[in-house]
Design a protein that fits this description.
Layout (H helix, E strand, L loop, with lengths): L4 E5 L3 E8 L11 E9 L1 H11 L3 E9 L2 H12 L3 E8 L5 E7 L5 E6 L8 H6 L1 H4 L4 E4 L5 H10 L3 E4 L17 E2 L3 H8 L7 H10 L5 E5 L5 E5 L2 E5 L12 H14 L4 H15 L12 H8 L12
Parallel strand pairs: 1-4, 1-8, 2-6, 4-5, 8-9, 9-10, 10-11
Antiparallel strand pairs: 2-3, 6-7, 11-12, 12-13
Helix pairs in contact: 1-8, 6-7, 8-9, 9-10
The chain binds alpha-D-ribofuranose.
The site of alpha-D-ribofuranose has 16 residues, from strand 2, helix 1, strand 7 and helix 8.
């Protein structure tokens, strides 16, 4: 492994956000309060989340040669993410996410993949210099299966998979994954059953996956459940006033990766990740909402600075 580099192989989207009182039902039109655009995409969000906390991060992905692609690259660079392996293509548009956020901070997201749909194993092979010896490789499912499988296979460090958006996992992928981090909906989709935030139910569903690595199930305000070696540990989340839950899960995963490169054990890393997710839920937008180390210290409270006690 090379030092403490984190590599993210994944998506970059321009997020178009509309704030609404409540999310529309099928066939219904609702009027929004305001709208804004900001950089997003699960991959790019996780890259920025780790970099904003001080991580050494490289991104592998694809954007168009359009204005959105330019903005997304600039946003990554502003947070110090290396973008040498984000390919630009003139023949496809940059990925777009249309997001409605209701008064309770819940969202509904539709993604048009655009350039993200063209990421291939060849892109991963071209990025071998940053993928093969990364300390942590962060993967999601907003790009095709083949590059996800290729990256998991190549990476010599800790391979972390966010199985979102949920779909049937490619055969053999989990054999190359060390840490699986679904939310309760994705877990239910993968394991069968109904989404639940009840710790015993979540633990039982996670065991049903038969996954040999560590499973961390994120539960929003209810924190997270860590399953490893057959035992489960519940980690609570700090209480916050929720404004917008978009990218809270990405904040969690990026902060988890950053903490792992700093030598945290898994439960300690999950406590920091819970704080990062909680902070992100207090701000509007995706990358705009991701925390700095000081933000995490504030969420954790006095005496809970970086590397300190981490109960949340
Ligand atoms: O996880 C949040 C992200 O999901 C948004 O930024 C949007 O782009 C979609 O990818």
């Amino acid at each position: 492994m090379s030092g403490d580099r984190i590599v993210v192989v994944g998506s970059l989207n321009f997020d178009l956000v509309v704030e609404v009182e409540r999310l529309p039902s099928p066939g219904e039109t609702v009027l929004g309060h305001r709208h804004f655009g900001n950089p997003g995409g699960k991959g790019a969000n996780q890259a920025v989340a780790a970099a904003r906390l001080g991580g050494d991060v490289a991104m592998v992905g694809c954007v168009g040669t359009d204005e959105s692609g330019e903005q997304l690259l600039a946003a990554l660079r502003a947070d110090g993410v290396a973008t040498d392996h984000v390919r630009r293509r003139a023949d496809v548009a940059t990925g777009l996410a249309v997001i409605s956020v209701d008064a309770a901070g819940e969202n509904a997201i539709v993604v048009s993949s655009g350039a993200n749909g063209t990421v291939s194993p060849a892109d991963v092979a071209r990025a071998a210099g940053v993928v093969d010896d990364a300390a942590v490789c962060l993967l999601q499912l907003e790009i095709p299966d083949a590059p996800v499988v290729a990256a998991a296979r190549r990476c010599g460090g800790l391979v972390v998979l966010d199985p979102a958006p949920a779909r049937t996992l490619p055969a053999g992928l989990l054999a190359d994954v060390d840490v699986l981090i679904p939310n309760e909906h994705e877990l239910a989709e993968l394991a069968g059953g109904k989404p639940s935030r009840e710790v015993d139910t979540v633990a039982a569903q996670a065991r049903q996956l038969g996954f040999g690595g560590t499973t961390i199930v994120t539960l929003g305000a209810a924190g997270a459940v860590v399953l490893r070696d057959g035992a489960s540990t519940h980690v609570g989340a700090p209480k916050v006033d929720v404004v917008d839950t978009t990218a809270a899960g990405d904040a969690f995963r990026g902060a988890f990766a950053d903490a792992m490169t700093r030598g945290a054990d898994i439960v300690e890393a999950v406590r920091r990740a819970c704080a990062a997710g909680a902070f992100a839920a207090t701000r509007s937008g995706a990358q705009a909402a991701l925390p700095t180390p000081a933000d995490i210290s504030n969420v954790l409270g006095p005496g809970e600075g970086r590397g300190g006690g981490l109960d949340c």
